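does this look right to u?? manganese (II) ion version
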Amino acid sequence: MKISIATTIPKEKTLILFALENETFGIQDKKLIEEAKEQGFKGKENTTVLLFPKNESPAKRIILTGLGKEKTLTEEKLRRASACALRKAQNISSEEISLFLPQILNNPYKESYAILEGALLANYKFDKYLSKQDGSKKIQSCSVIGSEKFESDIKKGIELAQTLSETACFVRDLVNEPPSSMTPTQFAKLAKEVEKNCKSSGIRLKIFEKKEIEKMGMGALLGVNRGSAEPPIFLHFHYKPVKASKSIAFVGKGITFDSGGLSLKTAEGMETMKMDMAGAATILGIFKAIPKIKPAVELHGIMALTENMPGGRAYKPGDVLKAMNGKTIEVLNTDAEGRLILADALSYAVKQNPDAIIDLATLTMAVVIGLGALVAGYMGNNEELLNAIKKASLESNEKFWPLPLEKDYREGLNSTVADIKNISSTRREGGSIVGGLFLQEFVGDKPWAHLDIAGPAWSAKESHYLSPGGTGFPSRTLLHYLLSFN
Ligand code: BES
Ligand code: MN
Ligand code: ZN
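got this back:
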């Protein structure tokens, strides 16, 4: 979408006005108010009305989009109202829109960020494999209209919205790509492209292929890979700005398809398992965005990539694997593979000696049961780090809820033949916490946070600014987090 900023209303574009739920919708034009009311529009959230005003109107088409009551207005409501209006514009095949800055929150920066982000995220469609486009077209251009005196704030808001939504949509593309084309090797190719485009920003990429993964002693990643015909890949991005107060390592789970291995999933359980690389995809997206946000923090992006397949050479329940940090793991369920590849990736991250580690993983079904499809579970060993992530998530409105790393559950992972088992004797009880406790064994004493994004990384349906498939979660949160260092 082409984005511009304007101080006057372009006649030819569909004008989108944000309308409060009150007598006048917060707009001046009496005729417009009348017409909207006649059509039953009340300014309620998630409702729109399409109007064709008479000649003297500044725009030939207007969509009013409801915000609900002024008192309860939030940035998220602006995002959703904008998304709702954009979908309406798509349905009437209008390809050009303008968003009129509502100026209700008294913060043109945040308002312009929210309305444009909602529109850009809602305009996403994964349609590359459709032989016929559906009726509704993507919006091609959008201008944000606001008064001149806020121009620099609006510009900043627009830039942020563009960077964050572009990143989220890039992550969505990676997640939505069919698993037989988004293999570890293909993922590495895309990573190489990202490096090429970002070299001038001080970003470097190391790609480790199977031989080097063997040399590094990543027995857990290699174990998971054994049942697959596709080789594993280990990626390490590094960004070092001139002024950096801290160094952070992002560590991502990159299972490009999770069949469960010999502990095979059900057919239904496998349907969405191309999304099991959402953690790694998010990190790649973030590195792609670094030249734009230029965070004042040193950053490592570490990703372990493999399929989890039940081929003839597949690792078996009962096998013992040795992770890079020397710890041995008894595998009792080959479907608990994420924690295995992360055992190596976290060990590797510790070796880089960062000030903090944050891992991103679609790790457990249990977190989906406990928190639902919209909320990620997060846990860790450092309150300050967890608070910083929570704070960033309030900017993006990507939802996180804390889970306790309950020490007394650790004994369920005790093994009689290895240092640790990959599932607990307590079976499914507290599955997400157990996953976190397992990962904790591989972070040493580094400040660390674990984000279990199994629910919100994927959306089963279209709703507000989400579309079916990958959501881009938690890329916007982590970009806000990185920006907090600037
Ligand atoms: N990738 C899955 C978790 C998952 C499930 C993500 C549904 C998104 C939606 C993970 O590898 C897995 O299979 N976890 C098992 C662990 C269990 C065997 C201890 C689970 O949660 O069932
Ligand atoms: Mn699994
Ligand atoms: Zn998995």
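The mean pLDDT is 97. idk if thats expected tbh
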